[in-house]
Amino acid sequence: xxxxxxxxxxxxxxxxxxxxxxxxxxxxxxxxxxxxxxxxxxxxxxxxxxxxxxxxxxxxxxxxxxxxxxxxxxxxxxxxxxxxxxxxxxxxxxxxxxxxxxxxxxxxxxxxxxxxxxxxxxxxxxxxxxxxxxxxxxxxxxxxxxxxxxxxxxxxxxxxxxxxxxxxxxxxxxxxxxx
Length: 179
Known about the structure:
Oligomer: single chain
Shape: globular
Number of strands: 14
Strand order of the largest sheet: 6-14-13-8-9-10
């Protein structure tokens, strides 16, 4: 049986910087209640056949050695389950189209980095991906807009470039907010 996830977000509150997010799945109703700040928006460009890093992180001090209480929920803009990281472990019930193509970085979880690597990019991967991080009262949303283009002639696979993009994403979300 195929399970569908719908993401429904309300509009901004009168404060202008908070919103609510609710996630409903066909198996169970899973609510992420509470106030989310405006989502962080990221644009990523990838090439057909290559990989792309979709970044999602929180400051390391927000983890406070409570990784087991963290829920990280990755969905595409169609509500399909890309990847869930619950208590530091990856849930096994991903959508088949993502199951073998999504990689996480468990050694980075304690640093607040829950980015994923989407491999073997296809043109139809071009869409928005939503990452929700929740722990007790802390909640964050990151929306990554992935653009996929044909690979230019003579371009090889640059895995080192993906690592650099991952590190830069991490710096932007952990260092720049405090400067």
